[in-house]
Amino acid sequence: MSTLIKVQEVTKWFGKTEVLAGICFEVKERETLCILGGSGGGKSTLLKVMIGVLRPTSGTVIIDGEDTSKLTDSQWDRVRRKLGVMFQSGALLNSMTVAENVALPLEHHTKLDQETIATVVKIKLHQVDLLHAADLRPNEISGGMQKRAAVARALAMDPKILCYDEPSAGLDPIATTRIDQLITQLKTTMGMTNVVVTHVMESVQRIADHVVMLDKGKVILDGDLDDLKASDDPRVRQFRTGELEGPAIGTTAPQDYLKDLLM
Questions:
Q1: Which of 205, 228, 180, 166 is nearest to 39 (CA)?
Q2: Which residues contact 48 (CB under 8 A, 6 or more apart)?
Q3: So what's the pLDDT on residue 72?
Q4: Rounded distance between C-alpha atoms, residue 221 and residue 33, angstroms
Q5: CA distance 27 to 142
Q6: How confident is the model over 249-258, as pLDDT tens digits?
Q7: Residues 144/175, Cβ–Cβ less than 8 Å
Q8: 3-state DSSP call for residue 18?
Q9: Which residues lie across from 32 on neighbouring strands?
Q10: pLDDT value, residue 253
Q11: Is residue 87 included in any domain, yes or no?
C-alpha cells in the first residue's frame, strides 16, 4: 500500500518550550495508526499539527502528496476535506439534532441541495448505527452515541483519512469496544485510513496496524503490535503493562506542568 501521510522532522515550540522534537513516521493507506504516549508526551499537539490546527515550527507534513508546510490557509482548507476529525469531546452542538450536526459540514462546504444533504446524513448515520437517533439532541443520547455521532459528522465529506482524539475518553468498556469495532469496520468496508490518539492499551490491541509512541516530544517506538509487545525500552514496557515502578513515561514534574498544558 502506498504512503498517505509523511511526517518529516517535525518540531513544535511554544515560546522556549519544545513540545515536538524531530518527529518522523509514515502512514500507509488503509491502515490504523495509534499514537500513544503519557500525559505531556506530545501526542495531541502532533495530531493538531497533522490536521493543520497548528503549524509546525519546522519540518513538514505531507498529506496525499501535498507538502502542507507550503500551503496558504485557503489551500489548507482544500486539504482538510481529505480529513475527518473526531474531537475528544465530540464537539457536537446541543442546540441542534444529531442529524443537523452531521449536516453542518455539507451545508458549509458544499452546494448540495437540502434533499441530497438529508440523504447523505441518513447514510452516514446508518454507517455508525445511529439512524434511530437522528432527531434527538446530543444531550438526549449516551456518551457512546455522542462519539458515534461525531464520527458520522467526520464522515460527512467522505474523507480519505479519519483522525480520532482519544475516542474512548469517558466511555465504559462496552462503549469503548463498540467505538473500536466502528473504527475497524470503516477501515474494512470503506478503505478508511485511521489516525487514533489514545492511551487505552486494550483499544490499541484491537485496532492498531501501526503504533507510534511518544515520550517528551520524541518518538520512542515506531512499529506494529509485535514491536510494541517485544520492546525492551523501559518506558514502552511500563506504558504497556501499567506498572507503577519505572521511568514514568510523560512529564509530571512540577516544572513541566506548563508543558503538559500546552500539549
A1: 166
A2: 54
A3: 86
A4: 12
A5: 32
A6: 554 444 444 5
A7: yes
A8: strand
A9: 194
A10: 46
A11: no
How far is the first Cα of the chain from the last one, in angstroms, to the nearest whole number?
Answer: 32
12-46 tens-digit pLDDT? 999 999 999 999 999 999 999 999 988 778 898 99
Enter the C-alpha cell of residue 233: 525500552
DSSP string, 192-225: -EEEEE---HHHHHHH-SEEEEEETTEEEEEE-H
**Total domains present in the chain:** 2
Q: Which domain holds residue 74?
A: 3-82+159-262
Overall pTM > 0.70: yes
Q: Does one domain contain both 152 and 97?
A: yes
Burial 154-163 (b: 16+ CB within 10 A, else e): bbbbebbbbb
Query: What does the DSSP assignment read for 19-87?
Result: EEEEEEEEEETT-EEEEEE-TTSSHHHHHHHHTTSS--SEEEEEETTEEGGG--HHHHHHHHTTEEEE-
Q: Where do we find the cell 485511521?
A: 194
> Cell match 520524541: residue?
218
Grid coordinates belonging to 93: 452542538
C-alpha cell at 187: 477501515
Q: What is the pLDDT of residues 124-168, one digit of tens each?
A: 999 999 999 999 999 999 988 999 999 999 999 999 999 999 898
- Output the nine-digit C-alpha cell for 224: 506494529
Q: Which of residues 132, 158, 184 is at a domain's end? A: 158
